[in-house]
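Slide 14.
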Amino acid sequence: MACQGTRGDIQPFLAVAQGLKDSGYEPIVAAANDYQAWIEAAGFGYRRLGRDVKAWILEKENARKFTSSPLSVLINMGELLERPLQDQLDDLITASEGVSAILFSVLSHLACDLAEARKLPAAALLLQPAMPTRHFPSALLPYESMGPWLNRLSSAAALRARFLSRHKIIDWRRNVLGLPPKPASWAGFTIAGRPIHRIYGFSRHVLPIPSDWSDMDHVVGYWFYDPVLRAEPSSKTAQSVSAFLASGPKPIYVGFGSMPVPDAQENLAMLKESLRRLGMRAIISRGWAGLELGPTDHDQFYSLGDAPHSWIFERVDALVHHGGAGSIATGLRAGLPTLVCALGFDQLFWGHRIASIEAGPKPLPMRNWSPARLDESLRALTSTSKFRQAAQAIGNKLQAEDGVANAVACICDVIGDP
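Slide 15: predicted structure.
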């Protein structure tokens, strides 16, 4: 199971790995060494895949590119992914020794080439829609719809950009795997030109299944990892959060996860000023951006370090976050109205989905923040009854959905019984 990415990418993979283990398979999770201790503590085999993800994301030039306009990210996709893909080349060979099948994430798609060379069954485990459809554009673009023809074209272009091979990767296919260069027409999840199964870890209740996708695309529901759903923070954090909760009205949660935040302290100051004007309390996660509160902030705001989303979300009134797929899933499962302040990648896409299912206001990308816009969005988030009702209804549906079991059934069909 090859998965490059942040914790939000790894955690759903561990949920599927646990489902496979419970069904008699022996999953080996290949990920960056950031996650070795976590994976091994969960009882899975671990093999290294690539370098320090946090350092790569927070590198100044990369951080700028990740949080630039969505169109710029799409245009520069090949360049952005070149280093993390190249970092995986040697590790993919060693990580896959002795395996009987390969499952991979979008950022580890070179594992598909490895499966081709070793003639192993393979499937893609994806957290975002990948294949072209007339129903919506590429998840990397900022538009809700561009019309049927341009919707399909945009996703096709995104696939080409994502799978664009650089010279080192072409050499790896030829010299290490003994494969010819991959034609551009094979760019999307194929082995020798034949499509492989694509299993999606999101819910049809959040994104309806496109009618023009093939029977190789399986939307099975979110992959929630039970140990994380049941996890609690340290006793010190639990006590201090409880004291803050008891000191006033129910707060909202604010957090931007593993994303770099441009002009972090300036944007945080703007957000705090808006919350003060509206009289809202907030639990503000420091995240990878290191958002720090000032000495006079603690009457209205709580600075949160490492704590499980599921535990915190049970204790807040609404959510403001970047719109990462994992945060969207956990927040909706908790039945909370959500304001997405997208920073990059597919986050604005999920923000549009939140608004479409009426579980929150229209997304407000951080690059579009202003005092007036923040006031309007935050006020709508907490005072619009239909948002809370829709979020709670979706939450009930997600809690009844077993995405892991559905994924395991699909995988079993692809790779055979254990």
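Speaker note: The mean pLDDT is 90.
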